[in-house]
Amino acid sequence: MTKKKIYIISFAVIISATIFLSGLLLKSNGDKATDSPVYQVKRGDLTISFVESGTIKARDQSIIKNEVEGRTSITYIIPEGTPVKKGDLLIELDVSTLEDQKIDREIAVQNGEAAYIGAKENQAVIENQAKSDVDLAKLTLEFALQDLEKYINGEYPYNLDKADADIKLAEEELTRAQETLKWSKQLFGEKYISQTELQADEIAEKKNTLNTELAKKSKNLLTDYTYKRDLAKLQSDVNQAQMAMERTERKANANVIQAQAELKAREAEFGRQKDKLAKVEDQISKTKIYAPADGLAIYATSAKSGHDAREPLDIGSEVQEREELIYLPTGNSSKAEIMVHESHLKKISKGLPTIITVDALQGKTYYGMVDSIAPLPDARSMWMNPDLKVYTTEVFIDGNDPSLRTGMSCQAEVIVKQYKDAIYVPLQAVIKIGTDFNVYVKSGKSFQPRKVQIGLDNNKVIHILEGLKEGDIALLNPPFKSTTGNSQNRSLSEQNTEENRDGMQEKISQGLKNVETKQGPADANQQVNTGKPNAEKARKQLENLTPEQREEMRKKFEQMTPEEKEKARQRLGRGKRQGGESQDKKQ
């Protein structure tokens, strides 16, 4: 059977018992009403307070934490309670794994350094080669430009002039040969030269004619074909040289950038390996923890309680990173750390006087003041019990008592308000009917509800602002579910010894006066709803029933209509929450 089902069944029985008891009360006549428990309203001093358990801690202390990553074990720890001086060795953690890591990191650093140096030299070589390639490409382009200019302005005009000269010489030679042939024909006709000589002059004239034609054709070939071809080739050479230079420059630039990137990567890797080595060396240095100041060594496990408690520290214990190991109080001033339930948040405020009693120091009472209240509920408590909302509150204790030691259990009574000549009744006497709070007051032989105005309560009695007077007889078990309480109104502040009562009361009065100066009267803004059903009272009433009454109540619950059962379930939900709060307060 689950825990939830157990709660439901338990509270169903409680609700049935309450309904049964309420029915008995409603059926009772005036004579029987006088037999019910009653309370005579009195006027007197009233202290509104609440008590929470907590732990004594040093107000000023150094918290020694484990700064080694992961989980490691303790190889040495100073005995708890040992007075230490600044610089004394407190804890030594296992260093074997870190030593192995250090060797691996040293090898990695050496490899990284070699790779970095190689990349640095390789960059220098690539930069030099790139400069050489670019210079060669520029020189090739320059030569191509010079060849083009030389051809346009030198070779071609020269060849053109030579062709013209050859034509002119050929024409002159042809003219001379023609004149010679003319005279040779006349001389041959006059029989001065032979036929052979005439034929030789004719051949010479034909040869010069051909030479003249060849010279002209050679010039045409130069201007129409050779010049265009050579000019195009030289211009192409210039273009190819330009593109080759661009390719060389880009490739050289890419090689240099790649070499630089490789160098940066190797340098970064080298630096990373050095950082890792430095980190391992730093971790090794943190395996030995020394006292930062003079103090008393207290194990963190001894100072924690409740859900935070764990096995005491010892040689071989495993600890994790950022785990608190040792508390080192640096003074005698102390504080009480208490967990305030959310139901008390509307009462508590900074500066409220508090009375602290320590379980280990019987007979001693300490005065303190609320210094801080956590803005959010304690996460660990919520994880253990999602319905439990408690707020970590620190109470500074006056004085420097060396007998107060970290880890001691304590009870803290927070004084919310003190009244002189106040009227009050037990909590269970007040019920809520509709939107009004009422107390059943004796009128003749019966009890009649009377509307009252309520103030603060201390979980035992509640302050009545209006509606009751001294001497009224109030019914403690009115015919409706009411908030349980204890008619006793004796707080820790009233249990002080005669020796310190006057001094303690003076501090409490002054503390309340300071808070009222900042916040104003408490009753004007804070009224407690005491009309909710209380499962604790029903449980106590159930325990006092005879077996016959329990059996009758069980049968009555089984004979309920579905509507009545639904109403019982709704009351059960409220009772469960109220009961949960009661349990939380006990915790």
Describe the SSE topology:
Layout: H1 3-27, H2 30-33, E1 38-40, E2 42-58, E3 61-65, E4 71-77, E5 83-84, E6 89-93, H3 96-189, H4 195-285, E7 288-290, E8 295-296, E9 298-299, H5 300-303, E10 318-320, E11 324-329, E12 334-341, E13 353-358, E14 365-373, H6 379-384, E15 390-397, E16 409-426, E17 430-433, E18 436-443, E19 446-457, E20 461-466, E21 473-475, H7 498-519, H8 535-543, H9 547-558, H10 562-586
Antiparallel strand pairs: 1-21, 2-12, 2-16, 3-11, 4-6, 4-10, 5-8, 6-7, 9-11, 12-15, 13-14, 13-16, 14-15, 16-20, 17-18, 18-19, 19-20
Describe the structure.
There is one protein chain. The chain has 587 residues and is an alpha+beta fold. Among the domains are: 40-60 and 332-533, Beta Barrel (Elongation Factor Tu (Ef-tu), domain 3), CATH 2.40.30; 99-284, Helix Hairpins, CATH 1.10.287. Helix content is 50%, strand content 23%. It has helices at 3-27, 30-33, 96-189, 195-285, 300-303, 379-384, 498-519, 535-543, 547-558, 562-586, and strands spanning 38-40, 42-58, 61-65, 71-77, 83-84, 89-93, 288-290, 295-296, 298-299, 318-320, 324-329, 334-341, 353-358, 365-373, 390-397, 409-426, 430-433, 436-443, 446-457, 461-466, 473-475. The strands form five sheets. It has a six-stranded antiparallel β-barrel with strand order 2-12-15-14-13-16. Strands 7-6-4-10 form a four-stranded antiparallel beta sheet, with no helix packed on it. A three-stranded antiparallel beta sheet has the order 3-11-9. Helix 1 (3-27) crosses helix 8 (535-543) and helix 1 packs across helix 9. The radius of gyration is 56 Å and the shape is elongated. The model is unreliable at 1-7, 21-34, 481-499, 522-535 and 572-587 (pLDDT under 50).
